[in-house]
């Protein structure tokens, strides 16, 4: 299925994860990024996701004892709504994602999904319920079609094609001489950042988890790719609870709620228009980005 170009123990890990929790491949790489230090509690239950409401309640966290990175964060991601987290570089956006995946536990406070504290559920069931579209998608040395299938390895060819269509990848694939059989990844065609992110979106659509997490690419995509990706994210967020880390405010104007993070605290939250009227931090960030738009790097950090 996959040509060997990675260490065998690593592949063993991947296969075990796939067979076990059917975790999205993206999750596995995220998992591998950090040393596992959290273990399931004795008697951990399986997370049962119904509506998919996520609640952060008075969450405090620091990577070491010396510096608190997240300081009393409270917010809710309502079921099937799209919530965006914005804030300048180092505000703690990615840290909130790591806490949601339980790569770390908060020092105090709680994170729950549909009323179940994530501390009390198995990590496999937690990560199996969340799909991730990371900033940089890992591609395997196989065809683009099989790369999409990693979202759900037992998906039928028709399901894979439907995900490709919904992620607006069909035209791109049709333009390749070998079409869906085109090899990508390490020894194949190199995809652009936007194309890779669409592969990741297609995987997520195939997996169809109740909760989706997007980490918007920090590097600017060209405006055509960005528009396509936004359309694909919109498709997903109508059906699933969606949390987005956004670097460009223009991409999340339609979010149901925007959480503005500043030095690990929620400085303000609300809809785009509401936050602009307030004239606070969001309005300031918006103004800065409007000025930057003329320059090529129109993003916050
Ligand atoms: P960016 O937009 O630049 O990605 P961010 O808002 O996502 O930033 P985080 O990555 O959450 O910010 O980082 C918040 C703070 O935590 C930063 O000061 C960072 O240096 C620190 N930090 C992040 N990861 C670690 C780690 N593994 N160990 C120690 N400190 C860390």
UniProtKB/TrEMBL annotation:
Protein localization: Cell membrane
Main location, first listed in the record: membrane
Domain of life: Bacteria
KW Transmembrane helix (keyword) present: yes
Gene Ontology cellular-component terms listed: plasma membrane
The keyword Transmembrane appears for this protein: yes
Assigned keywords, A-Z: ATP-binding, Membrane, Nucleotide-binding, Transmembrane, Transmembrane helix, Transport
Membrane topology: Multi-pass membrane protein
Membrane-traversing stretches: 1-15
Annotated ranges, domain ABC transporter: 54-288
The name this protein goes by in its record: ABC transporter
Provenance organism: Alcanivorax nanhaiticus
